[in-house]
Design a protein that fits this description.
Length: about 400
């Protein structure tokens, strides 16, 4: 069964995470994704280890686990487009591609004749997606942008971490490069929209996606809280600014989460916790009142939760219809019955003679399901295959290009 995007060819000039994440989504959905990498070194994340993928003998390879997270279902081609001959090869590939992904600095590809204006003249149907830290215009446009600094500059770190006055208080980044991931998702949405528009107009377009724009857009309710009050939200640790109780609580053997979303759930929580009077207390009977009296309510609940284990609380609250859950480490995540039932871990045979563990795509399409065709490629693994199939280069021509340092 063909993938939903099996008719699409993507030229992926991006590296690290945001662009490759988008490219992997296209690959999962069936698109042919050609990843262009620097000869000899490749994508920076190939070297961001340990840990590394194991080879057939169980030894560490040179393939970092980080690279494996965003590069399956791609073909790797080594090509030095700082050289004129390499630029020519990229332009020839572009003639037969639908999408180009790149995350170079603003104007960085123009020096090589690989900017949107040049490639649009070659292929007017090309959808050219530029991913940068700050976008194509504005006073920061030429700056490099990295997830960590964007989390700080874009406000996320001001909302993440323990409140001022508590031990360990201070701004904190999210434990994964979330802004990169979200930017990859927005880039994917933008390209899909442009592909749909091309069906009507016959023309491609340029897509400008910036990490900072994405980070600010994804402040969601916190941004609206500020815009409606003029007051910057403060760090609340694991608590929610608009809902109470919606945070972590201590149990007899650790911690767990209670996520009460309405007054009915709060009443059920109070009954299970043996504190039914709290539900009728005017300080706590509505969410608005609970937000105002958060500092009084939370200690009362915490005094009760420490007398049962996390498993006991989860069982009792689930039966009562109160949203709750444990706080798992990754070993517990991948052993969780629901995670196992959904098949969220997969293992793909690789070119090292071993297998590469992967996290499955969350996309479940009934008629055109995600296909796991190829593990993340070795550097330059498909160079000859791609150049001979798409550009008609002979073995002799490819050998000459290698000797010249182009491949």
């Amino acid at each position: 069964m063909s993938g939903a995007l099996s008719h699409i060819r993507v030229l992926d000039l991006s590296r690290v995470l945001a662009g490759p994440w988008a490219g992997q989504i296209f690959g999962d959905l069936g698109a042919e994704v050609i990843k262009v990498e620097r000869p000899g070194s490749g994508d920076d994340t190939r070297h961001w280890g340990p840990p590394y993928v194991k080879d057939a003998e169980g030894n560490d390879s040179r393939e970092a686990a980080y690279f494996q997270s965003a590069n399956r279902n791609k073909q790797s081609v080594t090509l030095d487009f700082t050289q004129p001959e390499g630029q020519r090869l990229v332009r020839e590939l572009v003639q037969n591609c639908d999408v180009l992904l790149e995350n170079f600095k603003v104007g960085g590809l123009a020096a090589y004749g690989l900017d949107y204006a040049t490639l649009n003249a070659i292929n007017p149907r090309l959808i050219y997606c530029s991913i940068t830290g700050f976008g194509q215009n504005g006073p920061y446009a030429k700056r490099a942008g990295y997830d960590f600094m964007i989390q700080g500059l874009g406000g996320l770190m001001s909302l993440t971490g323990k409140p001022d006055g508590e031990e360990g208080a201070g701004p904190m980044k999210v434990g994964v490069a979330l802004t990169d991931i979200l930017t990859g998702l927005y880039a994917t949405v933008g390209v899909l929209a442009a592909l749909n528009q091309r069906e009507q107009s016959g023309l491609g377009q340029h897509i400008d996606v910036a990490l900072l724009d994405v980070q600010v857009a994804c402040l969601a309710n916190q941004a609206m809280n500020y815009l409606n009050t003029g007051v910057s939200p403060k760090r609340l640790g694991n608590a929610h600014p608009n809902i109470v109780p919606y945070q972590d609580f201590p149990s007899a053997d650790g911690d767990f989460i209670i996520a009460v979303g309405n007054d009915g759930q709060f009443r059920k929580l109070c009954e299970v916790a043996g504190l039914p009077a709290l539900a009728d207390d005017p300080r706590f009977s509505s969410n608005k009142a609970r937000v105002a009296h958060r500092a009084e309510l939370i200690p009362l609940l915490r005094q009760a939760t420490v007398f049962k284990t996390t498993a006991q609380w989860v069982s009792l609250l689930e039966q009562a219809g109160v949203p709750c859950g444990p706080i798992n480490d990754l070993a517990q995540v991948f052993a969780d019955p629901q995670v196992l039932a959904r098949g969220l871990r997969i293992d793909m045979p690789n070119s090292l003679g071993s297998s590469t563990p992967q996290v499955a795509s969350p996309l479940r399409l009934s008629e055109t399901p995600v296909q796991y065709r190829n593990a993340p490629p070795l550097l330059g693994e498909h160079t000859e295959q791609v150049l001979s199939r798409h550009l008609g280069l002979s073995a002799e021509q490819i050998t000459a290009l290698r000797a010249a340092g182009v491949l």
